[in-house]
Structure formats: structure tokens, C-alpha cells
Amino acid sequence: MRSVVLLASFVSIALASPFLGQTDILGLFQRSVSSGCSTIGTASCHNTSAVSNLCCFEAPGFWDTSPSTGPANSWTIHGLWPDHCDTTFSSDCDPSRAYTNIASLLTANGASDTLAFMQTYWVDINGDNENFWEHEWSKHGTCMSTLEPVCLPSGSPTGLEAVLFFQTVVRLFQSLPTYTWLANAGITPSTSATHTLSTLTSALKTASGGFTPALDCTSGALNGISWYFNLEGSVIDGTFVAINAPVAGSCPSSGIKYPPKSGSTVRLIDFTAPASLPTKATIKALRSGSAVGGLLSAGTWSTQTLATFTISGTSSSFTMTSSKGNCGVSGGHLACGSGVSLTSFSAVSSGSNILLASGGSTSFSSDGVPSGTTVYTVYTGSGHADGYTLSIVGS
Known about the structure:
There is one protein chain. The protein folds into 2 domains: 62-257, Alpha-Beta Complex (Ribonuclease Rh, Chain A); 280-394, no CATH class. Helix content is 16%, strand content 27%. The chain has helices spanning 102-108, 112-121, 129-139, 160-174, 178-184, 197-208; strands spanning 2-8, 76-83, 194-195, 214-218, 221-232, 239-243, 256-257, 271-272, 280-287, 290-295, 301-302, 309-314, 317-322, 325-330, 333-337, 346-350, 353-357, 364-366, 379-380, 386-394. The strands form 4 sheets. Strands 9, 10, 11, 12, 13, 14, 15, 18, 19 and 20 form a 10-stranded antiparallel sheet that branches. Strands 1, 2, 4, 5 and 6 form a 5-stranded antiparallel sheet that branches. Its EC number is 4.6.1.19. InterPro entries: Ribonuclease_T2_eukaryotic, RNase_T2-like, RNase_T2-like_sf, RNase_T2_His_AS_1, RNase_T2_His_AS_2, RNaseT2L_C. The active site is at 78, 136, 140. This is Ribonuclease T2-like.
């Protein structure tokens, strides 16, 4: 199975303001459900023989984001679906689990924050969000082998696998700040400008760490972006390994329009580059607006005395060091030490906070919340159990 993430339907809403910080909406994954699966085994689409335990190996790939509504400064979500490693996919695999009233299902299972996010970023072109969500779950979610009810912990409530599906889609979407990635390359919506396909894909490839998505156009206008992954382990808590799109999208090689959205009313959040950065700072972890510890000198998350970091550069590109040595991102996690290569970070303002960003995203996550002497590895993106942002505080 391969995962496809499609960011689409950008047209017809006015993109005039800075990117809306999707990672400002925290606490999306308060409910922790473990699949019990390893993430170091065979990735989807890479097995050479039949796999018997399909609770830990996704048999068909997925991801898509495409309605033409939502915030004027963000792409929106279409969905997430598995394919058969050849771009074909099954659909509507289990009509008995074609759940309705997704909003109530999410709320009843403690995922009201996920619902709130979906109501802004996963919206239907005709305004019928509920029908859209039901369709995406029944058509694609029911075809995910690792979300079969038998794969969930004993005693799980009916419909929990659908809740986990929606949480995973939101988490993946938050890890792909496509609007910001394009804007950082000087590519913003315009009524007159046109772009080449190579310019657009190059900007996204660079920002995403080297992976090329598929871009789709309608009448020469960009309206869909598909990101592809292989999956190690379960959809619930596995590792989504980014890959290059196996097929090209429908956009032409040149003359591509990136029109602003129009006719929408949105709530905009200040999410811009700060005027300046401190040269010495501590870095605090923010969860639901409250500080919960921060970074130690090795780049780990703790509630112990925070380290002081030295910052060199500007808000759009800077490096950090601690008493341990250089700080950088390697293997998807943050570390500081003598053998670490420096990584360029950026910073954005969100309200009164200056947030640390890696690869254009302010999302960070860990496998737990620290207390006492317990520390956790800091991963980039929202792929682990507990998400947060990192605030740079001058010292």
C-alpha cells in the first residue's frame, strides 16, 4: 500500500494574508490509542511476499486535500486514501462501517478539537461538510487494513477506527504547510502571475526535504497537490515515509496560474516573520497555549532547567548551538551535540510568541509529555503522540 496526500481546490477563495498557523490548534491527539505495531519492519509497497498480519501492514496508500473553500491563506483537505502501489485503489470496502454523523462520533470519542480543525480546513465545496466526511471515510477509510475493528484494542467503542482515521489525516495535513512552502519561495496567489511546473515543484521539493508531489490543474489553474507516502506500521501510529509522486499531475509545463480565492469570510491569525531574533534564548514548549517545559542542551524536551541556545542569522534563516554543540534535524528529530550538523531554522510570530519552524512547519511532537527527570525526543512534524510548538524566548 502507498499513501496519497492530496492538497487541492485552492481556487475561488482570496489568499491575501500570511499563512494561517495550523499548528496553533493544539491538543488534537489527546486520546492515545496504541496499535502495538512496530515501525521498523517492512514498509508498504516494499514486501516481497505475502504479509499475514494486516493489522500492522497496510495492504493497499493515501492522502488528499482538495475542496475549494476554507481559509484564504491555507490549502484545505480532500482526504487520505490507500492505493495498490500502482495508483489504483479500492473503495467502499465495508458498507457496514459507513458511519454517519461524523461530528457526533468525534465529539463522543474526545476528539472535539479535531472536529473544530476539520470545520475550518476540511470543508465541502457545497457546504455539506458532514456528507463530505462520511464519503471520505466510507470510500477510503474502510479500505485501510490497519483500521479494521479487530486491530483496535479490546473493548474499543464502535467507530473509534473512524476517529483515528480523521485524526491521522489532520496530523498529516499539519505536517505539509504547502501555502507557506510556496510563499517562502516567493510564490503567492495572484490574478496575473503565471508559473512553470518546474518552479512550483522545485519550491515544494526543497521545502519538503527532497520529495516531489503531483500537481493538478483545472483550466490551467493550480488546484490540487498530491503528496505520497509509504507506511511503516499502522495508520493509527505508524511512520509515514514520504516518497516522490509515482505519477505526474495534470498541470502543463508552463503558464500555470495560482489564482487567489474569492468570496470567503475567514478568521485570520497573525503568523508572520518576527522583526528580529534574540541572540541568546531558551526554547519553551507550548501546549494549548501553556508552557510545559522546553528544550535541554541536547535538544530534548524536559521540564527541568532549560538550556540557553545561541542563535545566529535572521528570522528567515538561522542556526542554533547549545553547550553540547551544533543543533540540527537528522532522521526527523532535533538534536544538539558535537557530531550534529547545523540545520537552518526559521521563526514566525504567532500572537506574542516567536515560534521555531523547521522546514517551514512549526509542528513538533514527542511520544509523551515530560515530568520530573523524564525527557523525550523532539520530532519535527505532528507524527507522534503529543504535539506542541516551540517558543523562542530571549534570555
